[in-house]
Write a structure and sequence with these properties.
Elements lengths: L33 H20 L6 H8 L3 H8 L2 H26 L4 H18 L1 H7 L18 H15 L8 H20 L5 H15 L3 H4 L2 H4 L1
Length: 231
């Protein structure tokens, strides 16, 4: 599936305070090894083929030809096509988590604004992401290993997304226990993912609704107001 923690001050069972506050930071990736570069090239080729021809046309032999390596090298890197599918989806998730990071950075003192910005960024990106369209909306890949990784087998994706949101939320003073925060984050992440796959309104409308739900959970709905007016 990127982030001193000004930790929440709560009335009951507060999140433990730390002397340093967690700060959402964008980590600069270390220099890539040859193996990392090969994996990146193979995933890039798999993405391009899925977008242009569909996941069913992606084979280990085809990837080997695209990158200029042996078929066995591709198997050594991923093990199987289902494993390749998972790495492809999780790699694309990093792009979306970058937009989550941007949403939190834009609202450093407003937890509801951060949720709103992160959700809006992700929903807007989902409309223009060609790989996501190939998996969800088009005829390509609907019957493949890819779509279940966003639906029935999405636990790995959900875990990474929830970790990113939780890390961002722990920057704020919140009137929630950690258990309550975990539940709230789970609801937000699953709701956003649901709307990514089956949008029921514009990104602006959906993000406003999600932010309003967050404001109610955080006890800040008096500051946020009617979600329709925010869309």
């Amino acid at each position: 599936m990127r982030s001193s923690r000004e930790v929440a001050v709560m009335s009951a069972q507060p999140i433990e305070e730390t002397t340093t506050a967690p700060r959402l930071v964008r980590v600069t990736a270390p220099a890539r090894s040859d193996a990392d570069t090969l994996r990146s090239q193979l995933l890039g080729a798999a993405s391009r083929l899925t977008i242009s021809e569909g996941w069913s046309k992606v084979t280990m032999s085809r990837l080997a030809d695209e990158v200029g390596v042996s078929r066995q090298t591709v198997y050594n890197e991923f093990g199987s096509k289902p494993a390749l599918a998972q790495q492809l989806v999780l790699g694309e998730l990093q792009v979306f988590l970058g937009r989550v990071f941007d949403g939190f950075e834009a609202s450093p003192s407003d937890p509801v604004g951060a949720i709103h910005g992160a959700a809006l960024n992700v929903l807007r990106l989902s409309l223009e992401n060609p790989l996501l369209h190939a998996v969800i909306a088009g005829s390509h890949g609907a019957e493949s290993e890819l779509l279940p990784l966003l639906t029935t087998d999405s636990e790995a994706l959900l875990t990474l997304a929830k970790e990113a949101i939780t890390e961002g939320m722990l920057r704020f003073e919140l009137r929630l226990t950690r258990a309550q925060l975990d539940v709230g984050v789970d609801v937000v992440v699953r709701t956003v993912l649901s709307h990514v796959i089956h949008p029921s309104g514009t990104p602006e409308e959906t993000a406003a609704g999600i932010a309003w739900i967050a404001s109610v959970v955080l006890g800040l709905d008096d500051q946020w107001g009617d979600p329709k007016l925010r869309a």
